[in-house]
Design brief:
By secondary structure, this protein is of the alpha+beta class. The protein contains 14 helices and 13 strands. Strands 5-6-1-7-8 form a five-stranded mixed sheet. Strands 9, 10, 11, 12 and 13 form a five-stranded antiparallel sheet that branches. Strands 3-2-4 form a three-stranded mixed sheet, sandwiched between helices. Strand 2 and strand 3 form a beta hairpin. Helix 4 packs across helix 5. The radius of gyration is 25 Å and the shape is globular. The chain binds 2'-deoxycytidine-5'-triphosphate (DCP) and calcium ion (CA) (2 copies).
Protein backbone atom coordinates (compact mmCIF):
# COMPACT_ATOMS: atom_id res chain seq x y z
CA UNK A 1 0.00 0.00 0.00
CA UNK A 2 0.94 3.63 -0.40
CA UNK A 3 0.18 6.03 2.43
CA UNK A 4 0.23 9.70 1.42
CA UNK A 5 -0.64 12.55 3.77
CA UNK A 6 -3.19 15.06 2.52
CA UNK A 7 -2.05 18.63 1.67
CA UNK A 8 0.88 17.90 3.91
CA UNK A 9 2.66 21.21 4.62
CA UNK A 10 -0.65 23.03 4.95
CA UNK A 11 -2.09 20.29 7.15
CA UNK A 12 0.96 20.62 9.42
CA UNK A 13 0.22 24.32 9.71
CA UNK A 14 -3.40 23.53 10.66
CA UNK A 15 -2.17 21.05 13.25
CA UNK A 16 -0.05 23.74 14.88
CA UNK A 17 -2.82 26.32 14.77
CA UNK A 18 -6.30 24.86 14.44
CA UNK A 19 -7.94 28.30 14.21
CA UNK A 20 -6.92 28.53 10.53
CA UNK A 21 -8.57 25.22 9.65
CA UNK A 22 -11.75 26.62 8.17
CA UNK A 23 -9.96 29.17 5.98
CA UNK A 24 -7.94 28.83 2.79
CA UNK A 25 -4.33 28.08 3.85
CA UNK A 26 -1.50 28.63 1.36
CA UNK A 27 2.07 27.62 2.20
CA UNK A 28 4.58 29.63 0.18
CA UNK A 29 8.22 29.52 -0.81
CA UNK A 30 9.14 33.21 -0.82
CA UNK A 31 12.10 33.84 -3.10
CA UNK A 32 12.88 37.09 -1.28
CA UNK A 33 13.21 39.22 -4.40
CA UNK A 34 10.09 41.23 -3.73
CA UNK A 35 7.57 40.78 -0.95
CA UNK A 36 5.27 38.67 -3.10
CA UNK A 37 7.71 36.83 -5.34
CA UNK A 38 7.87 33.10 -5.04
CA UNK A 39 5.60 30.12 -5.54
CA UNK A 40 2.96 28.15 -3.72
CA UNK A 41 4.38 25.03 -2.07
CA UNK A 42 0.97 23.59 -1.28
CA UNK A 43 -2.47 24.67 -0.13
CA UNK A 44 -5.31 23.14 1.84
CA UNK A 45 -8.37 21.88 -0.03
CA UNK A 46 -10.39 25.01 0.75
CA UNK A 47 -7.75 27.09 -1.05
CA UNK A 48 -7.64 24.52 -3.87
CA UNK A 49 -11.37 24.97 -4.41
CA UNK A 50 -10.52 28.56 -5.46
CA UNK A 51 -8.00 27.23 -8.00
CA UNK A 52 -4.82 27.53 -5.93
CA UNK A 53 -2.21 24.90 -6.86
CA UNK A 54 1.34 23.80 -5.98
CA UNK A 55 3.91 25.63 -8.09
CA UNK A 56 1.65 28.61 -8.82
CA UNK A 57 3.18 32.10 -8.37
CA UNK A 58 2.12 33.64 -5.06
CA UNK A 59 0.63 36.76 -6.70
CA UNK A 60 -1.63 34.51 -8.76
CA UNK A 61 -2.80 32.64 -5.64
CA UNK A 62 -3.50 36.02 -3.97
CA UNK A 63 -5.58 37.05 -6.97
CA UNK A 64 -7.63 33.86 -6.76
CA UNK A 65 -8.26 34.50 -3.06
CA UNK A 66 -8.82 38.24 -3.46
CA UNK A 67 -12.18 38.44 -1.75
CA UNK A 68 -11.72 35.87 1.00
CA UNK A 69 -9.89 35.83 4.27
CA UNK A 70 -6.98 33.56 3.42
CA UNK A 71 -3.88 32.57 5.37
CA UNK A 72 -0.50 32.80 3.60
CA UNK A 73 2.42 31.24 5.48
CA UNK A 74 6.09 30.69 4.68
CA UNK A 75 7.39 27.08 4.52
CA UNK A 76 8.82 25.78 7.78
CA UNK A 77 10.69 22.72 6.64
CA UNK A 78 12.11 21.79 10.05
CA UNK A 79 8.63 21.57 11.51
CA UNK A 80 7.30 19.46 8.62
CA UNK A 81 10.28 17.10 8.99
CA UNK A 82 9.44 16.71 12.65
CA UNK A 83 5.79 15.88 11.93
CA UNK A 84 6.90 13.57 9.11
CA UNK A 85 9.09 11.69 11.58
CA UNK A 86 6.13 11.19 13.92
CA UNK A 87 3.92 10.04 11.03
CA UNK A 88 6.49 7.53 9.78
CA UNK A 89 7.04 6.11 13.27
CA UNK A 90 3.33 5.32 13.47
CA UNK A 91 2.95 4.00 9.92
CA UNK A 92 6.03 1.74 9.80
CA UNK A 93 4.65 -0.40 12.64
CA UNK A 94 2.01 -1.70 10.24
CA UNK A 95 4.44 -2.96 7.58
CA UNK A 96 6.38 -6.14 6.83
CA UNK A 97 8.65 -3.91 4.76
CA UNK A 98 8.61 -0.14 4.88
CA UNK A 99 9.95 2.36 2.35
CA UNK A 100 9.57 6.09 2.84
CA UNK A 101 9.65 7.78 -0.55
CA UNK A 102 8.99 11.41 0.23
CA UNK A 103 8.43 13.68 3.20
CA UNK A 104 4.78 12.67 3.36
CA UNK A 105 4.49 9.23 1.77
CA UNK A 106 5.62 5.66 2.19
CA UNK A 107 5.14 2.26 0.61
CA UNK A 108 4.25 -0.65 2.88
CA UNK A 109 4.58 -4.28 1.89
CA UNK A 110 1.88 -6.00 3.95
CA UNK A 111 1.72 -9.28 2.03
CA UNK A 112 2.84 -11.48 4.91
CA UNK A 113 0.71 -10.02 7.67
CA UNK A 114 -2.43 -10.06 5.50
CA UNK A 115 -1.71 -13.48 3.97
CA UNK A 116 -2.05 -11.69 0.66
CA UNK A 117 -5.75 -10.99 1.32
CA UNK A 118 -7.09 -7.66 0.14
CA UNK A 119 -9.88 -7.58 2.74
CA UNK A 120 -7.29 -7.85 5.51
CA UNK A 121 -5.23 -5.12 3.80
CA UNK A 122 -8.28 -2.87 3.70
CA UNK A 123 -8.81 -3.33 7.43
CA UNK A 124 -5.14 -2.65 8.07
CA UNK A 125 -5.36 0.55 6.01
CA UNK A 126 -8.38 1.66 8.06
CA UNK A 127 -6.39 1.07 11.24
CA UNK A 128 -3.52 3.17 9.94
CA UNK A 129 -5.91 5.98 9.08
CA UNK A 130 -7.49 5.80 12.52
CA UNK A 131 -4.11 5.78 14.28
CA UNK A 132 -2.88 8.83 12.37
CA UNK A 133 -6.05 10.67 13.16
CA UNK A 134 -6.12 9.69 16.84
CA UNK A 135 -2.43 10.11 17.61
CA UNK A 136 -1.51 13.04 15.39
CA UNK A 137 -4.79 14.54 14.21
CA UNK A 138 -3.78 14.10 10.57
CA UNK A 139 -5.60 12.71 7.54
CA UNK A 140 -4.06 10.70 4.75
CA UNK A 141 -5.05 8.88 1.61
CA UNK A 142 -4.17 5.24 1.10
CA UNK A 143 -4.01 3.10 -2.02
CA UNK A 144 -3.85 -0.68 -1.85
CA UNK A 145 -2.92 -2.83 -4.82
CA UNK A 146 -0.97 -5.85 -6.05
CA UNK A 147 2.14 -3.70 -6.61
CA UNK A 148 3.64 -0.27 -5.93
CA UNK A 149 2.45 1.33 -9.16
CA UNK A 150 -1.20 0.38 -8.67
CA UNK A 151 -1.05 1.37 -4.98
CA UNK A 152 0.33 4.80 -5.89
CA UNK A 153 -2.26 5.49 -8.57
CA UNK A 154 -5.01 4.19 -6.26
CA UNK A 155 -3.89 6.52 -3.44
CA UNK A 156 -4.39 9.50 -5.76
CA UNK A 157 -7.89 8.36 -6.68
CA UNK A 158 -9.87 9.53 -3.65
CA UNK A 159 -8.08 12.48 -2.14
CA UNK A 160 -8.29 13.82 0.50
CA UNK A 161 -9.01 11.35 3.28
CA UNK A 162 -9.65 8.44 0.93
CA UNK A 163 -9.02 4.72 0.80
CA UNK A 164 -8.92 2.90 -2.53
CA UNK A 165 -8.36 -0.85 -2.77
CA UNK A 166 -7.70 -2.36 -6.20
CA UNK A 167 -7.52 -6.14 -6.32
CA UNK A 168 -5.56 -7.94 -9.05
CA UNK A 169 -8.53 -8.68 -11.24
CA UNK A 170 -9.84 -5.09 -10.97
CA UNK A 171 -6.63 -3.43 -12.16
CA UNK A 172 -7.52 -3.28 -15.85
CA UNK A 173 -11.00 -1.97 -15.13
CA UNK A 174 -9.57 0.69 -12.81
CA UNK A 175 -6.66 1.73 -15.05
CA UNK A 176 -8.11 1.85 -18.54
CA UNK A 177 -10.38 4.94 -18.23
CA UNK A 178 -7.81 7.04 -16.31
CA UNK A 179 -6.16 10.01 -18.03
CA UNK A 180 -2.72 8.95 -19.11
CA UNK A 181 -0.94 11.52 -16.91
CA UNK A 182 -2.18 9.66 -13.87
CA UNK A 183 0.52 7.06 -14.53
CA UNK A 184 3.70 7.58 -12.54
CA UNK A 185 6.30 8.98 -14.95
CA UNK A 186 3.95 10.70 -17.39
CA UNK A 187 4.64 14.43 -17.01
CA UNK A 188 3.38 17.37 -19.05
CA UNK A 189 5.74 16.81 -21.99
CA UNK A 190 5.11 13.08 -22.24
CA UNK A 191 1.37 13.66 -21.96
CA UNK A 192 1.46 16.12 -24.88
CA UNK A 193 3.46 13.66 -26.94
CA UNK A 194 1.01 10.86 -26.12
CA UNK A 195 -1.98 13.07 -26.90
CA UNK A 196 -0.47 13.82 -30.30
CA UNK A 197 -0.34 10.05 -30.86
CA UNK A 198 -4.02 9.79 -29.94
CA UNK A 199 -3.27 8.28 -26.54
CA UNK A 200 -5.56 9.96 -24.03
CA UNK A 201 -6.20 7.25 -21.46
CA UNK A 202 -4.18 4.52 -19.81
CA UNK A 203 -6.30 2.06 -21.79
CA UNK A 204 -5.22 3.75 -25.05
CA UNK A 205 -1.63 3.39 -23.91
CA UNK A 206 -2.14 -0.27 -23.05
CA UNK A 207 -3.41 -0.91 -26.57
CA UNK A 208 -0.53 0.94 -28.20
CA UNK A 209 2.09 -1.18 -29.92
CA UNK A 210 5.11 -1.71 -27.64
CA UNK A 211 7.49 -1.30 -30.58
CA UNK A 212 6.02 2.11 -31.37
CA UNK A 213 6.39 3.22 -27.75
CA UNK A 214 10.04 2.17 -27.75
CA UNK A 215 10.67 4.07 -30.98
CA UNK A 216 9.07 7.20 -29.57
CA UNK A 217 10.29 7.20 -25.97
CA UNK A 218 13.41 5.03 -26.12
CA UNK A 219 13.71 1.42 -25.10
CA UNK A 220 13.66 1.76 -21.30
CA UNK A 221 10.77 4.21 -21.08
CA UNK A 222 8.88 2.51 -23.89
CA UNK A 223 8.93 -0.82 -22.08
CA UNK A 224 8.06 0.89 -18.81
CA UNK A 225 5.01 2.64 -20.31
CA UNK A 226 3.89 -0.56 -22.00
CA UNK A 227 4.00 -2.50 -18.72
CA UNK A 228 2.73 0.33 -16.52
CA UNK A 229 -0.35 0.79 -18.68
CA UNK A 230 -1.33 -2.82 -17.92
CA UNK A 231 -0.67 -2.26 -14.22
CA UNK A 232 2.44 -4.43 -14.33
CA UNK A 233 5.20 -3.45 -11.91
CA UNK A 234 7.73 -5.69 -10.16
CA UNK A 235 9.55 -3.16 -8.01
CA UNK A 236 9.91 -4.51 -4.49
CA UNK A 237 9.31 -2.35 -1.42
CA UNK A 238 12.86 -1.58 -0.34
CA UNK A 239 13.50 -1.29 3.34
CA UNK A 240 16.14 1.40 3.79
CA UNK A 241 18.56 1.28 6.63
CA UNK A 242 19.33 4.79 7.72
CA UNK A 243 23.00 5.46 7.13
CA UNK A 244 24.48 8.29 9.14
CA UNK A 245 27.77 8.86 7.42
CA UNK A 246 30.02 7.49 4.74
CA UNK A 247 33.80 7.68 4.66
CA UNK A 248 36.78 6.43 2.67
CA UNK A 249 40.41 6.48 3.66
CA UNK A 250 43.66 5.87 1.78
CA UNK A 251 47.33 5.40 2.75
CA UNK A 252 49.76 7.73 0.98
CA UNK A 253 52.80 6.31 -0.81
CA UNK A 254 54.94 8.82 1.02
CA UNK A 255 54.22 11.16 3.92
CA UNK A 256 53.19 14.57 2.68
CA UNK A 257 51.72 17.96 3.48
CA UNK A 258 51.15 19.03 -0.12
CA UNK A 259 47.50 19.86 -0.87
CA UNK A 260 47.78 19.06 -4.58
CA UNK A 261 49.23 15.64 -3.84
CA UNK A 262 46.49 15.07 -1.25
CA UNK A 263 43.81 15.99 -3.78
CA UNK A 264 45.24 13.61 -6.33
CA UNK A 265 44.87 10.82 -3.79
CA UNK A 266 41.45 11.81 -2.48
CA UNK A 267 39.83 12.55 -5.83
CA UNK A 268 39.17 8.83 -6.26
CA UNK A 269 37.71 8.64 -2.74
CA UNK A 270 35.34 11.50 -3.55
CA UNK A 271 34.28 9.77 -6.76
CA UNK A 272 33.54 6.57 -4.84
CA UNK A 273 31.55 8.40 -2.17
CA UNK A 274 29.68 10.27 -4.85
CA UNK A 275 28.76 7.02 -6.63
CA UNK A 276 27.52 5.59 -3.32
CA UNK A 277 25.24 8.54 -2.53
CA UNK A 278 23.86 8.75 -6.05
CA UNK A 279 23.08 5.06 -5.81
CA UNK A 280 21.33 5.44 -2.46
CA UNK A 281 19.67 8.71 -3.45
CA UNK A 282 21.03 10.65 -0.49
CA UNK A 283 22.50 14.12 -0.14
CA UNK A 284 25.10 15.29 2.34
CA UNK A 285 25.17 18.49 4.29
CA UNK A 286 28.43 18.01 6.18
CA UNK A 287 31.75 17.26 4.54
CA UNK A 288 34.97 16.47 6.36
CA UNK A 289 38.52 15.25 6.01
CA UNK A 290 40.34 12.72 8.15
CA UNK A 291 44.10 13.01 8.50
CA UNK A 292 46.39 10.53 10.21
CA UNK A 293 49.71 12.22 10.73
CA UNK A 294 53.15 10.62 10.73
CA UNK A 295 53.10 10.70 14.53
CA UNK A 296 49.98 8.45 14.21
CA UNK A 297 47.65 11.04 15.74
CA UNK A 298 44.19 11.15 14.13
CA UNK A 299 42.63 14.47 13.18
CA UNK A 300 39.46 15.55 11.46
CA UNK A 301 38.04 18.77 10.18
CA UNK A 302 34.63 19.40 8.73
CA UNK A 303 32.19 22.02 7.63
CA UNK A 304 28.43 22.08 7.24
CA UNK A 305 26.93 23.53 4.09
CA UNK A 306 23.89 25.74 3.87
CA UNK A 307 21.89 23.13 1.94
CA UNK A 308 22.18 19.40 1.34
CA UNK A 309 23.81 18.52 -1.97
CA UNK A 310 25.04 15.51 -3.89
CA UNK A 311 27.49 17.47 -6.04
CA UNK A 312 30.88 15.87 -6.63
CA UNK A 313 32.29 19.30 -7.45
CA UNK A 314 31.17 20.71 -4.09
CA UNK A 315 32.64 17.70 -2.35
CA UNK A 316 36.05 18.15 -3.99
CA UNK A 317 36.18 21.92 -3.51
CA UNK A 318 35.46 21.61 0.19
CA UNK A 319 37.90 18.78 0.67
CA UNK A 320 40.63 20.87 -0.95
CA UNK A 321 39.78 23.88 1.25
CA UNK A 322 39.79 21.74 4.38
CA UNK A 323 43.18 20.19 3.56
CA UNK A 324 44.60 23.63 2.90
CA UNK A 325 43.28 24.96 6.21
CA UNK A 326 44.48 21.90 8.06
CA UNK A 327 48.06 22.00 6.77
CA UNK A 328 48.25 25.75 7.32
CA UNK A 329 47.71 24.94 10.99
CA UNK A 330 50.07 22.01 11.45
CA UNK A 331 53.72 21.44 10.67
CA UNK A 332 53.48 17.66 10.51
CA UNK A 333 53.03 15.41 7.50
CA UNK A 334 50.12 13.09 6.72
CA UNK A 335 50.45 9.33 6.40
CA UNK A 336 46.82 8.49 5.64
CA UNK A 337 44.01 10.76 4.48
CA UNK A 338 40.28 10.31 4.15
CA UNK A 339 37.01 11.96 3.25
CA UNK A 340 33.83 11.73 5.27
CA UNK A 341 30.34 12.94 4.45
CA UNK A 342 27.60 13.05 7.07
CA UNK A 343 24.29 14.68 7.89
CA UNK A 344 22.85 12.53 5.12
CA UNK A 345 19.29 12.89 3.98
CA UNK A 346 17.15 11.22 1.38
CA UNK A 347 16.42 13.39 -1.60
CA UNK A 348 12.79 14.26 -1.67
CA UNK A 349 11.08 13.51 -4.94
CA UNK A 350 8.34 15.94 -4.11
CA UNK A 351 10.72 18.87 -4.05
CA UNK A 352 12.14 18.34 -7.48
CA UNK A 353 9.34 19.89 -9.52
CA UNK A 354 9.20 22.89 -7.24
CA UNK A 355 12.95 23.47 -7.29
CA UNK A 356 13.10 23.24 -11.06
CA UNK A 357 10.09 25.52 -11.27
CA UNK A 358 11.76 28.18 -9.18
CA UNK A 359 15.01 27.89 -11.11
CA UNK A 360 13.21 28.29 -14.42
CA UNK A 361 11.36 31.31 -13.22
CA UNK A 362 14.20 33.23 -11.59
CA UNK A 363 16.88 32.60 -14.21
N1 LIG B 1 5.54 20.17 -2.45
C1 LIG B 1 6.11 21.33 -2.91
N2 LIG B 1 6.02 21.66 -4.24
C2 LIG B 1 5.38 20.86 -5.11
C3 LIG B 1 4.79 19.68 -4.66
C4 LIG B 1 4.89 19.36 -3.31
O1 LIG B 1 6.71 22.06 -2.11
N3 LIG B 1 5.29 21.22 -6.40
C5 LIG B 1 5.62 19.85 -1.00
C6 LIG B 1 4.43 20.43 -0.29
C7 LIG B 1 3.51 19.27 -0.08
C8 LIG B 1 4.47 18.11 0.06
O2 LIG B 1 5.59 18.44 -0.78
O3 LIG B 1 2.69 19.42 1.07
C9 LIG B 1 3.88 16.78 -0.35
O4 LIG B 1 3.55 16.81 -1.73
P1 LIG B 1 2.28 16.11 -2.31
O5 LIG B 1 2.48 16.03 -3.78
O6 LIG B 1 1.99 14.84 -1.59
O7 LIG B 1 1.09 17.16 -2.11
P2 LIG B 1 0.24 17.51 -0.83
O8 LIG B 1 0.50 16.59 0.30
O9 LIG B 1 0.43 18.96 -0.52
O10 LIG B 1 -1.23 17.37 -1.37
P3 LIG B 1 -2.09 16.05 -1.64
O11 LIG B 1 -3.24 16.13 -0.70
O12 LIG B 1 -2.50 16.18 -3.06
O13 LIG B 1 -1.20 14.86 -1.39
CA1 LIG C 1 0.48 14.32 0.01
CA1 LIG D 1 3.35 12.92 -1.45
Amino acid sequence: MLVDLDYFFAQCEEKRNSSIKDKPVVVCVYSGRTEESGVVSTANYIARSYGVKSGMPIYQAKKKLENVEAIFLPVDHDYYEEVSGEVMRVVRQFADLFEQVGIDEAFLDVTVRTNGRFQAARELAERIRNELRAQLGLTCSIGVGPNKLVAKVAADQNKPDGLTVIEDEKVEHFFSPLNVERLVGVGTKTREKMHSMGIMTVGDLARCDAQKLMETFGKTLGIYFHNAAQGVDNEPVKERTEIESLSRIVTLKQDSRDTDFMMEKTEQLCTELHAAIVDQKVSFKTIGIIVILNDMSIHSKSRTLENPTNSLQTMKENVRDLFKQFFDETGLEARRVGVKISNLSHERESQKPLTSFIQRNTD
